[in-house]
């Protein structure tokens, strides 16, 4: 597995105005932490990080001040409006030490149940796994071709991948197919229909209000 290298540089400020100015120059603020070492505030060129991100690798070498550390992309903060990276957290790792992280789950194939008129629901979009940094998959692919109506794929049924252990609940549903429940259509006549009023029959010797008016 080829490990990509990301060039970064140290930054000394963490004030909001300075961070905003940094982003305006095309750079992304970041932080490197973990392994009981001091946190290091960093920044990198936006296009450099985008290149690494598009390669699909979660693990990389972070370089700064002639140093190189193996790290994991732990968290990425995005601007919800323009979908631009605002900040990145890097976690130090040892290449021989197993790590825990979440990876996305992708679906492949067309479900038999969907072809029969069912609806497919992708319940679990990502899953927590444990593995060596060099074995981190870009995605867990799940084939749903044989998934019929009323059926589901659970965590325990996910593909077995060498060196990877699923940590999430084994009984949790990853994807399911269910039948569409049709609601009974209400006609316009039913909506406009007025309920029949049943008058109470007066007891013997008792007159109704209408009778009193006529008297």
Globally, the shape reads: extended
Number of helices: 5
Gyration radius, rounded? 31 Å
List the strand order in the largest sheet: 1-5-6-7-3-4-2
Strand content: 35-45%
- For the secondary structure, the number of strands is 14
CATH class of the largest domain: Mainly Beta
Listing every helix as H and every strand as E from the N terminus to the C terminus, the arrangement reads: EEHEEHEEEEHEEEEEEHH
CATH architecture of the largest domain: Beta Barrel
Number of domains: 2
Low-pLDDT stretches are 208-215
CATH topology of the largest domain: Ribosomal Protein L25, Chain P
How far the N terminus sits from the C terminus, by CA atoms, comes to 103 Å
Describe the fold and architecture.
The chain has 215 residues and is α+β, with helices and mostly antiparallel strands. The protein contains 5 helices and 14 strands. β3 and β4 (37-45) form a beta hairpin. The radius of gyration is 31 Å and the shape is extended. The model is unreliable at 208-215 (pLDDT under 50).
């Amino acid at each position: 597995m080829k490990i990509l290298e990301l060039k970064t540089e140290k930054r000394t400020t963490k004030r909001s105005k300075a961070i905003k100015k940094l982003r305006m120059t095309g750079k992304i603020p970041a932080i490197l932490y973990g392994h009981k070492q001091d946190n290091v505030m960093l920044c990198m060129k936006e296009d450099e990080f985008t290149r690494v991100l598009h390669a699909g690798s979660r693990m990389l070498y972070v370089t700064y001040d002639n140093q190189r550390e193996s790290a994991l992309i732990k968290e990425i903060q995005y601007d919800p409006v323009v979908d631009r990276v605002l900040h990145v957290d890097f976690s130090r790792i040892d290449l021989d030490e197993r790590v825990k992280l979440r990876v996305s789950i992708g679906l492949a194939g067309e479900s038999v149940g969907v072809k029969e008129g069912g609806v497919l629901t992708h319940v679990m979009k990502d899953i927590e796994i444990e593995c060596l940094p060099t074995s981190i998959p870009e995605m867990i692919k799940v084939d749903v071709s044989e998934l019929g109506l009323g059926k589901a794929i659970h965590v325990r049924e996910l593909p077995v991948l060498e060196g990877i252990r699923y940590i999430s609940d084994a009984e949790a549903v990853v994807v399911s197919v269910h039948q569409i429940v049709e609601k009974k259509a209400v006609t316009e006549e039913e909506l406009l229909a007025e309920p029949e009023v049943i008058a109470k029959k007066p007891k013997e010797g008792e007159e109704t209000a209408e009778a009193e008016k006529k008297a």
